[in-house]
Write a structure and sequence with these properties.
The protein contains 5 helices and 4 strands, in the order αββαααββα. The chain is α+β, with helices and mostly antiparallel strands. A 4-stranded antiparallel β-sheet has the order 2-1-4-3. The longest helix has 17 residues.
């Protein structure tokens, strides 16, 4: 399994903090590897105390579920009991949090980690995560679950 390295994770984290600062937001950012293990976690000055944990749970979810939180939200809404039980599994290191600002890190068609941004509004967290990954050359397209063919980006 390929996973994101420290230098790449730090580059993402640095870019997220800088972009959030430019928007006047104090955020925390977490980058995890493909197995959901932390690689880089940062809390900017002024970010609320729980935001690092929220960012880590978002990043973990995107990595281990292998889909961005935005794609998982409808599934979570339709099967809340299933999602609540996922967090109780013996191997679950973090809660499963299908939320905006939870983005799978994918390069050359391979999932290499997850990114979590927390501290702004849901839309701001998502915008920052998407902008930074796109700017740094990561892929943001994912096919719908169980649907063969090319990704459409309309999930």
């Amino acid at each position: 399994m390929s996973s994101i390295g420290l230098d790449a994770a730090d580059a993402i984290a640095d870019a997220v903090i800088a972009r959030a600062r430019a928007l006047g937001k104090a955020v925390s950012v977490a980058v995890v590897d493909a197995g959901g293990f932390p690689v880089s976690i940062r809390r900017s000055d002024g970010a609320r105390p729980l935001t690092p944990d929220i960012a880590r749970a978002k990043a973990y979810t995107a990595a281990v579920m292998q889909r961005p939180g935005k794609m998982l939200k409808k599934w979570q809404e339709s099967q809340p009991v299933f999602f609540s039980q996922l967090s109780q599994l013996p191997g679950a290191a973090m809660p499963i949090m299908a939320a905006d600002g939870s983005v799978t890190v994918k390069k050359d068609g391979v999932i290499i980690g997850g990114l979590g941004v927390a501290g702004g509004t849901a839309d701001e967290d998502q915008q920052i995560a998407d902008e930074i990954l796109e700017t740094l050359g990561y892929e943001l397209e994912f096919p719908a679950w169980g649907v063969p063919g090319k990704p459409t980006g309309k999930e």
